[in-house]
Fold this sequence. Notes:
The chain contains six helices and 13 strands. It is an alpha/beta fold.
Amino acid sequence: xxxxxxxxxxxxxxxxxxxxxxxxxxxxxxxxxxxxxxxxxxxxxxxxxxxxxxxxxxxxxxxxxxxxxxxxxxxxxxxxxxxxxxxxxxxxxxxxxxxxxxxxxxxxxxxxxxxxxxxxxxxxxxxxxxxxxxxxxxxxxxxxxxxxxxxxxxxxxxxxxxxxxxxxxxxxxxxxxxxxxxxxxxxxxxxxxxxxxxxxxxxxxxxxxxxxxxxxxxxxxxxxxxxxxxx
Length: 231
């Protein structure tokens, strides 16, 4: 009888397809579409249409719909996807600390400003400039998600940080000049996203060095030591 009662109770647990999609989930599907386009399984128009849909998808079920006819989606389902140069899952918050949006306009973040851990940049028939050469780094790792549609996103970083890129272009240009800092404590900046009939460019700004984060780390250590010795 107990089994019959249990069987009659409705299952209120959400199915996997109804779960909300994360940015990491969207990135995984976009990578599958990029590979499919490179293999000739999708035309340029199909690729662009699907990528646009992925970027606005809300649930895992919606994301599956864009790759369910691609063999790679089923081959990789058993193992989590990880791309070279990408941070581990969960390192960055889901929501951005700062949004830089230019729609038929121009927007910029430059000068002495504090960076968060995650920055989103959107250029739609417009231009976005993100200049970190004089920025104050409160975190050692920073993620910039850049999306350009008939626009441009221009990113500049100090020459003594590490810079890594994992994005792509659809009839556009996505160019990140990678570099590795010799200092293990230097900030690491990841640039990801897509350029659709537009451009995303990230490169070091020569002559600009980041020092603030390293100085603050030392000051924090010094204050902690003084408090400890004071007790």
